[in-house]
Amino acid sequence: VSYELDNIARSYARLSRDVGARISSAIDLNDIESVPAVLDGAEQEHSLLEKAFFVLSFAVLERRITLLANAKVKEALRRDAMRDAKFRTRLETAIKVAREVLGADPSWMSSASELESWNEIRNEIAHGDPPTQFFNVPIVIAIGMEIVETHDEVDRALNP
Amino acid sequence: LLILFLASQRWGEPVNDRHITYSSSSEELADPTISHKHVLERLRDWRDRVEALYGEIERELEAARKRGDTQLSTRYEVKRAPAEELPRRVGIVNAEQPATLHVVRPNETDVAVLSPRGLWMVGANGRVDLTIPRAAGSEIYMLIDQSAPLGGNSDWTRVPIGLPFARERFTSHWLVQKLQ
Fold it and tell me: What pLDDT, on the 0 to 100 scale, is given for residue B135?
């Protein structure tokens, strides 16, 4: 189990509860038609929270893909080269390694193109140009957990 | 621990057999070559999906009124809002937005408001916010469409805004029951 993703999920749940309570209380007190400043502020916080946790969750997911891609590599130079490779290369290699070691396609393989798009979106956010304000963070965490499980299984198989 | 947490809270009973692998609007968001025509097609589809959602709620309310279970009715409001980032990137500044649906009491005060928030969402295919205003304890849900882009039928999941892992399938029956 990834304690990193576990901690991220718990923090995300706690902070979402706080921001959700502020949005709810703003609507209790105000006319939702007028979009008062307090509601506007809480909604902006919610949007920032989603964006931040998308980036954090994706970072863990990406790190595990790189580790998985490098799972069978012994030489430091080749490991470094893989770390610097494009995301698509690391992803394809990670799937290949999982298939070779575990004898089956990883459960998340059909999400590969989705994962590639998340990488592009994460890069756009890092450059201050997010293509959207809306993120389904739990799905990123859930697919991240599947990747972590695959990496842990491969690691156990290669290093019994 | 997280797996147990997600298994217990992420999907409510009706959706817990769903595989998490699917395509969302993320791929369009990351596609620098997306065409003006495709974006227009997606916007039309978004409007149709939201209208279909409203249609289901209207039908459920109508049935409840006929049974004498409710006096609630609906009204629509067209709001002007700037286009989302993706349409703007292909030169669409003033896209037609789906209307906001108000579920109202006989005195025209709101018991629920459904506001389309955005079509392009990482890991989903659009979001409509459902607000149930109260003097205290107002409820806000994100209705997230989990269907694939241009995949036909919508698959709406309701998520309380403060409980992102507490997900259950949204049905108009659930909403009308809740508002009675």
Answer: 82
Q: Which residue has the higher pLDDT, A48 or B10?
A: A48
Shortest alpha-carbon distance between residue A72 and chain B (Å):
27
Contacts of A12 (CB under 8 A, 6+ apart): A49, A53, A57, A137, A141, B164
Q: Touching check for B144 and chain A: CB below 8 Å?
A: yes
- Is B138 within 8 Å of A12 when comparing Cβ atoms? no
The vertex-A70 CA angle with A69 and A74, nearest 5°, equals 155
The pair phi, psi for residue B132, each rounded to 5°, is -115, 90
| pTM higher than 0.90 | no
Q: With a cut of 80, say whether residue A129 has pLDDT above it.
A: yes
Of A28, A108, A110, the CB nearest to B138: A28
B73: contact with A, CB 8 A cutoff: no
Closest residue to B122, CB basis, from A108, A116, A136: A136
Torsion of CA B49, B178, A28, B74, to 10 degrees: 50
Cα–Cα distance measured from residue A29 to residue B136, given in angstroms and rounded to the nearest whole number: 8
